[in-house]
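User:
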Amino acid sequence: MVTDEEKDYMYRVYAKDPVARINLGIRRRLAPLLGNNRRKIEIMNVLLFSLPGTPIIYYGDEIGMGDNYHLGDRNGVRTPMQWNVDRNAGFSRANPQKLYLPVIIDPEYHYEAVNIENQEKNQASLLWWMRRVIAVRKRFKAFGRGSIEFLLPDNPKVLAFIRRYKDEVILVVTNLSRFSQAVELDLTKYSGYIPEDMFSGNKFPKIKDVSYILTLGRYDYFWFVLKKEEETVWFRKIRNIPQIYGSWKTIVSGKTKDILEKGILPSYVQTCKYFAGKFQEIREVKIIENIHVKESGCEIQLLLLEVTYTTGLPDMYLLPLAYSSGDKAEGIVIENPHAVVVHVKHENTEGIIYDGICNEEFRKHLLSMFIRKHTIPGLHGELTAYTGKNFKRYKRTDLVAVKSHVVKTEQNNSSVLYGKELILKLYRRLDEGINPEVELCRFLTEKISFQHVPPFTGTIEYRRHGHEPVVIGMLQAFIPNEGDAWVYTLDWIGRYFGRILARKDEIQETPIVPSSLVDAAFQDIPTLFQELIGGVYLEMVALLGKRTAELHLQLSSETEDENFVPEPFSVSYQRSLYQSMQVLTKKVFSLLRKNVNNLPDNLKELANEILNFDKEIMARFRVLFRKKLLAMKIRIHGDYHLGQALYTGNDFVIIDFGGEAAKTLGERRLKKIPITGCSKYDTVISLCCTHRTS
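Assistant: Predicted structure:
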C-alpha cells in the first residue's frame, strides 16, 4: 500500500531490528512500536478515531501493553492479556508452562507494571484516557458517517481536516512534530463560528474572515466542534419543558438515561435555586447513583448527579424524581412549574416527572426512615437514617399522622416542615465527609446542651464502601417564631422612619449625638433618639449580642474533642491570612476595573474613587504580621448574619450552621476567630458590639 521508498523509511524508523519485520509490515503492538511515548500513542489513537472508517483497537493497546516478536510469526502480539499482578497476569490459573504463549516479562512492559487493575485505579492512565476519547467520539456522528475535507496549511508538520455530517462540523488539528508548531488555517468559510474544544468544553476565539492561527505543543492535537455564535448560549432563564418517550420505571436506564444526562438534566439543574454553578459552563451531567424508593404508596427514584464544569472541580447534587399523571400532574404544573423536569409519554399513558420534594408520600417516607431507622439500598451504596438523643421525646403515633409541607423560602437546600414538631433540611449540593452543620448542632445540643439552637434529632446519610459518608438531610426540632432578626429589624426601621416623619420639627432642634457616644451604653444615648429607635428593639439588640457571645463561649469551652478545642494563632497562620486577604483584594479590584464601564453613570465616579485606594487598603493588611496575635481560633457559625437568628417573640434562636455553600466541607470546618463568622452582613457585628457582654 506504500512505495518502496516509504517502506524503507518505515523500517528504518520503526523496525531497526529485522526480526520485528514480517511480510510487508511490522509485527508489534502500538506502545513498543512508538517507543512507549505517551504523546505519540495518544496522537495515533486520535488520528485513528477521527479519520473515516470504523476504528479497531487491538487488545492490549488500550493499556500500552508490550509484545515479544521473538516468538515468530504473529505470536508476538498474541500473548495473554494482562489483567492484574496475579499468576499468568490474571489471564489463566493454569501452570505457566502449559500456556500456549508466555506472558510478557520485559522489564518495561512487565505484567506486574502494565495491567488493567493498576490502570483502573489511576485516572491519568492510558486506559482512562482511551475511555474518555471513545466517549467523546461516540457523541458525534460526523466521525462515523461524515465527509472529510483536508486543509492545506503552509506548515507541513500540522495535519488538519474537517469532518462534517448534517449540522455537525468538526475540526481536527494534529501536530506530528516533536517540537511546538504554529499554523495558519484557512477557515474563512466558517467565519462567525466559535471552535469549542470537545474534551474541556472551552471556547477558542471566534473565526473571522482571516487566517485562523493556532499554536500546538509537541505531538499535540485538538478536536474542535464548530458552533455558530447563538448556539453557545448555555443558560436561559425561560425553560421549555422537554418531552421524552419511555416508561417511568426504566427512565433512568438505557437510551432514556443518555437522553436525560445529555439533553434534559443540564438545562434543568441550571434553573434550580439551589444550583451553585450558574456562572460556570456545564460540560457534563452524569447520574452516579439511583436509589429506588418503593414502599406504601411512595415510588421515588432518588438520583445523585455529578455535574462537571469546563473549569474547576465537579459538584454532586441530590435530585429525587417522582411521577404523576392526570389531575395530580396538572396541579403540580400549575402550583410548582419549576419542579417539572420532563413530560413523559409511554404507550397510552402520559404524565410528568418532577422533583420528588413536592410529593407528599415521599416526605412522609423520609420521616418514617427515622421512626424505623430504615436503610434503602441503591446501585452502589445505601441510604441510612440515624437518630439523636432528642428524637426519643416524640411519639411514633403522633409523627405518623403529622402533615408536611415544603418551606418556600429555602434556596440552597429544601426544608420540609412536619406539623409544628420537626423540620428536615434536605441538602441539595452534596459532598463526602463530615457535615459541619450536623457536627455543630450535635455538639451544641447533645454535649453542651446550649438552649438557643434547635435541638438535633437525626440525619440521613448515603454510605458507599470505600468512601466517606454523604449527609443527605438533617432533622431538627421546629422552633415556632415570628421571623428572623433581619425581618424584625426591617420592621423596626420602618417604625423608626415613621417616628422621624412625625417629629421632624422636634428633631431639627436637637443637637447631633457626638460620635464618641455611639459605642457607649444605651443610657448615654439622648432620650429623643431612644424614643425614635424604640426601647424594646434596643433591648432585643442587647439580647442578640448576649446570645451571640454565649454561642462563642460555648464553642470555645471544649477541652477534649480536637475538632472543637481552641487553637492559638501561629505566626505562619497570620502570614497566610495576610496573603489570602491580599489575593482576594487584588481579584476584587481587578474585577472592578474590568467592569467599571458597565456600571451606571452615577456609580462610575464612586468606583474610580475606590480604585485609587487599592494600595492604601493593601497596606492596612500589614498589621496582621507586625506582632503576634493573642486571639484564639475556635469553631464558628460560618455564615452568621441577621437572617440566621430566629425571633421567637421574646428571645433569639440561632440556626443554619452549615457555613457558606460555596466553600467545601473541609473549609467550613476550619477554626477561625469569631469575628470572621459574620460573612455576609456586618450588621450583626455592630449590633452585638453595642452590648458589653459580647
